[in-house]
Design a protein that fits this description.
This protein has about 100 residues and is mainly beta. The protein has one domain (about 5-25, about 40-100): Immunoglobulins (Immunoglobulin-like). The chain has no helices and seven strands. It has strands spanning about 5-10, 15-20, 45-50, 55-60, 70-75, 85-90, 95-100. The strands form two sheets. A four-stranded antiparallel beta sheet has the order 4-3-6-7, with no helix packed on it. Strands 1-2-5 form a three-stranded antiparallel beta sheet, with no helix packed on it. The chain is elongated and about 50 Å long. The two termini are about 20 Å apart. The mean pLDDT is about 95.
């Protein structure tokens, strides 16, 4: 099961894209409440978004983003049935990809 949820919505010639990613986003400075040990860094370092296989967003992220990050933006254009693909890679080498159609 994917860690990425994508929602799209057409709005006055634009497309609203909302993305929710289930990820711990640990910055490497927090301590475990029971053991007192430092929790190792584990965060998304790269996020990419494609529209019909064309890159529209490529961003570098870091440990300062909160757990289960949410992103939202407007895409100029886009038509019903167009494909939106979201993928990420974290600092431990884990990756995930999800795809949705514009509705």
């Amino acid at each position: 099961m994917s860690s990425i949820k994508i929602r799209t919505k057409r709005l006055d010639g634009k497309t609203q894209i909302r993305i929710l990613i289930a990820h711990p986003m640990e910055n490497g400075r927090n301590k475990d409440k029971q053991t007192g040990e430092v929790i190792p860094a584990h965060f998304i370092k790269e996020l990419t978004v494609k529209h019909n296989d064309n890159f529209i967003i490529s961003s570098d992220l870091g440990g300062s983003i909160s757990k289960d990050p949410y992103f939202a933006f407007l895409l100029n254009g886009g038509a019903e049935g167009d494909k939106i693909q979201v993928s990420w890679e974290d600092n431990l080498g884990n990756t995930d990809t999800a795809e949705a159609s514009i509705v």
